[in-house]
Design brief:
There is one protein chain. This protein is α/β, with parallel strands linked by helices and 229 residues long. Helices cover 37% and strands 21% of the residues. The strands form 2 sheets. It has an 8-stranded parallel barrel with strand order 1-2-3-4-5-6-7-8, surrounded by 5 helices. Strands 9-10 form a two-stranded antiparallel sheet. α3 (68-84) packs parallel to α4 and α5 runs parallel beside α6. The protein is globular, with a radius of gyration of 17 Å.
Length: 229
């Protein structure tokens, strides 16, 4: 089973590589579900680490319906990732009625080629997930990251199993949200091939003006998940 770590900083990416994770999804601002990482962070990770890098392309927090300007930013960011030598793109677009925006998602997939394309957790907002899987197959999406439309992937395991069966090796279902060493094996036993976790630890930092919380991917937690699977 493959373990992808959601890395929100250079330190988190280093920790994931050190611990033996198979891949990272690089992003920033996990407090809003993740947004596109800065150019500087991308360059630092790609030039100094060897772990495969998939990059979240999401111009802001909030919903997954984007203006024309936001969509142009997304396309420019994908090209930057290709130029830097990243291995994959994690993105996707919805319509305001919570269906997949076929036209824009297809355009992102085409621009991303030859990089692998993962449809991110916008999938957990679609109104008909089983139909949406077929649509993503048709759009040549290679992976979909989902919690099974529940708060945690453990709670969504029934739908994850159903989606995995529908996918039938045409698209990879990546289970994500709340995965840790205690429950990771459940997803392997369900037949899933990939899981996604932040495996993070909160570090409190105090100074004279602010109380700051920093979150890093924790090598020990990553190793524990790998041992479990």
């Amino acid at each position: 089973m493959l373990l992808e770590i959601c890395a929100n900083s250079y330190q988190s990416a280093k920790n994931a590589q050190q611990a033996g994770a198979h891949r990272i999804e690089l992003c920033q601002e996990l407090s809003v579900g993740g947004i596109t990482p800065s150019n500087g962070l991308l360059k630092q990770v790609v030039e100094n680490l060897q772990i495969p890098v998939f990059v979240l392309i999401r111009p802001r927090g909030g919903n997954f319906v984007y203006s024309d300007d936001e969509f142009e930013i997304m396309k420019h960011d994908i090209q930057l990732c290709k130029d830097l030598g990243c291995q994959g793109i994690v993105s996707g677009v919805l319509n305001s009625n919570f269906t997949i925006d076929h036209v824009r998602t297809k355009e992102l997939v085409e621009i991303s080629k030859p990089l692998a394309f993962t449809f991110h957790r916008a999938f957990d907002e679609v109104i008909n997930p089983k139909e949406a899987i077929e649509q993503l197959v048709d759009l040549e999406v290679e992976r979909v990251l989902t919690s099974g439309q529940e708060t945690t992937a453990k709670q969504g395991l029934v739908l994850l199993k159903a989606l995995h069966a529908i996918a039938n090796n045409r698209i990879t279902i990546i289970a994500g949200s709340g995965i840790n060493a205690d429950n990771a094996l459940k997803f392997k036993e369900a037949g899933l091939k990939e899981i996604h976790a932040s495996a993070s630890t909160l570090i409190e930092q105090d100074n004279s003006m602010f109380s700051i919380s920093l979150t890093y991917s924790d090598p020990q937690k990553i190793k524990a998940i790998l041992d479990a699977i």
